[in-house]
Design brief:
The longest helix has 30 residues. This protein folds into two domains: 167 residues, Beta-Lactamase (2-Layer Sandwich), CATH 3.30.450; 55 residues, Winged helix-like DNA-binding domain superfamily/Winged helix DNA-binding domain (Arc Repressor Mutant, subunit A), CATH 1.10.10.10. Helix 2 packs antiparallel against helix 6 and helix 7 packs across helix 9. The two termini are 34 Å apart. It is of the alpha+beta class and 237 residues long. 30% of the residues are buried. It is elongated, with a radius of gyration of 22 Å.
């Protein structure tokens, strides 16, 4: 496992784009005996309809069919990934509620699979799926490889979040001041302008002045949206 980890880390450290990261992850998954790799990254914003970014090397015809049929909304493996961080092995029982999708997937060569999701402190979730067209995933193979497979899940999430999340989070053109960050942190904790004024020993109009500046800098509609954007962008850490 040490050699597996080291070679993957070296490749990921030198990756500067999602394509580079995916290439390194795919090579690692092939070393583990899988043909296909998929990773879905679910950003925490916008909160009402979080953006989902997917990368995979599935057959093109299956990618098109999956999107056209809206299979993500009914995919049992996706549902499992939202509800649990435990690994999932594809079986007929797992896909019993989406029989047509399962039949089409197997027809496209996606017959054997394993998936696990992850979630970081910023609310960004992800799920890695390893699959192949034949050779059932036995208990013996899982016992011998699952530690590397789980490690791959975490490495994928960290690397892809690093290169992809900045493209979809708001970074203000003018940096937030230390006082603006203080005010925003207390706002995130649910404090009112009056309470923040008491905590920071400043007048309420001054608190509102800082909040107004933050809303403008974060290109947000209001204070709540500014808090969420700043939090998801790591500006309040």
């Amino acid at each position: 496992m040490q050699q597996f980890n080291e070679s993957l880390l070296i490749a990921l450290d030198g990756a500067t784009s999602e394509e580079d990261v995916f290439s390194a992850l795919l090579s690692a998954s092939q070393m583990l005996g899988f043909e296909h790799l998929a990773y879905g990254l679910r950003l925490a914003v916008p909160v009402s309809n979080p953006k989902v970014i997917t990368l995979n090397n599935y057959p093109t015809i299956w990618q098109q069919r999956y999107q056209e049929a809206g299979y993500m909304a009914v995919d049992p493996s996706v549902r499992h990934g939202v509800l649990s961080r435990s690994p999932l092995v594809w079986t007929d029982d797992v896909f019993s509620s989406a029989h047509d999708m399962w039949e089409e997937a197997r027809h496209s060569g996606l017959c054997v699979g394993w998936a696990q999701s992850s979630l970081d402190g910023s609310g960004v979730g992800g799920m890695l799926t390893l699959s192949r067209s034949s050779d059932a995933l036995t208990a013996t193979e899982l016992q011998g490889k699952e530690m590397e497979m789980r490690w791959l899940v975490q490495a994928a999430h960290l690397a892809l979040s690093r290169v992809m999340q900045p493209k979809f989070t708001v970074q203000p053109d003018t940096p937030l001041t230390p006082r603006e960050i203080e005010v925003l942190k207390w706002s995130a904790d649910g404090k009112t302008a009056g309470e923040i004024g008491d905590i920071l020993s400043i007048a309420v109009p001054t608190v509102n002045f800082h909040i107004k500046n933050v809303v403008l800098k974060m290109k947000a509609a209001n204070k709540t949206a500014a808090v969420v954007r700043a939090l998801m962008s790591g500006l309040l850490n």
